[in-house]
């Protein structure tokens, strides 16, 4: 069976069902059906009810390359409809007691995705995200050891199809992937959710809120709820409802 939406809580022994702000439920699966190697690890000092994916991870002390096989659905109508957002999360949490967050490589279908550098941060996981076009009904995500004394691990994997088909990220060439550098919600303060409900954000994209002291953070008095439809790649309405502008008309914001 192929999925158009697959959420994996790596290292967990139990499935979890969540509900977003729009009361839409999400099913986070264990990773046992997608990989046979590695070890489940429960982070004893972490028990986050809301961000539960940081509570467990799967580590790979053995072997130089360990791979997940993700069964994903592809369209036989047109390959422009086979674009997926694929995101991997890494939360070290000093699970091994060594206080040495490892570095390693992340691959997708045999191609380098990212050089992963984890950290001691107790905040959010380190994420690496791609817009990727499937060539077959399975994607392979691999953790690759680059040093004998650094053990790869992973906390979560997400894959979501773009149901907008060719209208989404249409400038992406067939032989390339788009690697996320940043996705910022300018003018929003830290209380704004990074991942909003699926009625507004259909594609699982995370939007980082950011106020900037050198500019004015503004909220328009009137917002056209259909205005975001004019934006390329379908930005969600709440993210279009905040902005920054220069303090003086002669100043640039670039």
UniProtKB/TrEMBL annotation:
Membrane topology: Single-pass membrane protein
Ranges of residues in domain Malectin-like: 8-251
Principal location class: membrane
One Pfam family cited in the UniProt record for this chain: Malectin_like
InterPro entries hit by this protein: Malectin-like_Carb-bd_dom (IPR024788)
Record key words, sorted: Membrane, Signal, Transmembrane, Transmembrane helix
Tree of life domain: Eukaryota
Subcellular location: Membrane
A single cellular component GO annotation: membrane
Keyword Nucleotidyltransferase in record: no
Protein's UniProt keywords contain Signal: yes
UniProt-recorded name of the protein: Malectin-like domain-containing protein
Organism listed in the record: Dipteronia dyeriana
């Amino acid at each position: 069976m192929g999925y158009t939406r697959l959420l994996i809580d790596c290292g967990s022994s139990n499935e979890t069902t969540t509900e977003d702000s729009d009361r839409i439920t999400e099913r986070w699966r264990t990773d046992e059906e997608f990989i046979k190697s590695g070890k489940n690890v429960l982070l004893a000092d972490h028990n986050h009810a809301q961000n539960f994916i940081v509570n467990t991870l799967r580590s790979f002390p053995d072997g130089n390359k360990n791979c997940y096989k993700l069964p994903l659905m592809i369209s036989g109508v047109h390959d422009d409809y086979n674009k997926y957002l694929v995101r991997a999360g890494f939360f070290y949490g000093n699970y091994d007691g060594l206080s040495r967050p490892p570095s390693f490589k992340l691959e997708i279908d045999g191609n380098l995705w990212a050089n992963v550098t984890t950290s001691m941060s107790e905040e959010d996981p380190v994420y690496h995200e791609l817009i990727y076009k499937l060539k077959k009904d399975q994607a392979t995500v691999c953790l690759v050891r680059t040093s004998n004394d650094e053990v790869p691990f992973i906390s979560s994997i997400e894959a979501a199809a773009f149901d907008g088909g060719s209208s989404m990220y249409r400038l992406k060439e067939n032989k390339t992937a788009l690697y996320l550098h940043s996705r910022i919600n300018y003018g929003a303060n830290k209380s704004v959710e990074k991942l909003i409900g699926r009625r507004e954000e259909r594609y699982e994209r995370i939007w980082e809120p950011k106020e900037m002291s050198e500019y004015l953070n503004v909220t328009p008095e009137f917002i056209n709820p259909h205005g975001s439809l004019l934006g390329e790649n379908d930005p969600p309405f709440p993210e279009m409802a905040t902005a920054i502008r220069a303090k003086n008309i002669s100043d640039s914001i670039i």
